[in-house]
Structure formats: structure tokens, C-alpha cells
Amino acid sequence: MKYLCVCQYAHSRSVAMCRYLHGKGVEAVAAGAGTAPSVFGVLGAWADKIVVMEPDFARAVPPEFRDKIVLVNVGPDRWSNPYNADLAALIVKLAAEAGI
After folding, report:
1. Which range among 34-38, 78-82, 89-93 shows the weakest confidence by mean pLDDT?
2. Which of 5, 13, 51, 78 has a CA that sits 20 to 30 A from residue 28's CA?
3. Alpha-carbon distance 64 to 54, whole Å?
């Protein structure tokens, strides 16, 4: 299984999700809806699932890949650090709820 993890800038939330997935031995790439929307065509085709970290970021995903979206709504970035322990704990909880 390959995952594309999407947040606004690919600095905190999506990177934290990638770290979680990498820890499970799963391929994952982080991308920012606000910084690199041009990559969503290529990475959307590559990914089996697209993990969106906030509902609004789903708009960056091309329509042909929206059926791959899994919402893990951690909300707005209040951590600014993908290594934040509170963010990591929230991701573990929400990923389990989403079946990831």
C-alpha cells in the first residue's frame, strides 16, 4: 500500500502521518496543497490512498483520484513540528479510526 499524505504546506501534519506510516513499514509521501498542487496528478496516480489531514485539502486532489481519499482530520496546524508528541498521539488515534 502506498500513501500520499496531504496538508497545507507538507511541513507538519502530513509529515507526521508519513512518519507514522513509515513506522508501520508502509510507503508514504507528504505533499502540500498550498505549496505543490502540481504534484497531485503524478502522486495521485502513484498512491493507493490519499490521506487528507483537513477536509478543505481534498480540493487539491484531481477529481479522478478523489475516490482514494481517506480523511484523517487533525484540524488546523497548531504544532508546527512533525515530531510533536501530541500530534503523533492524535495521528495514531485517528489513523486507527480511519482503518489505516
Report:
1. 34-38
2. 78
3. 19
Give the chain's domain count: 1
Q: Note the Cα 4 to chain centre separation in Å.
A: 6
Tell me whether residue 95 is in a domain. no
Assess if residue 89 is contained within a domain. no
Domain of 63 in residue numbering reads as 2-36+45-79
| Separation in Å, CA 98 to CA 38, 39, 70, 74, 80 | 27, 24, 7, 12, 23
Predicted pLDDT of residue 36? 84
* Domain contains 60: yes
94, part of any domain: no
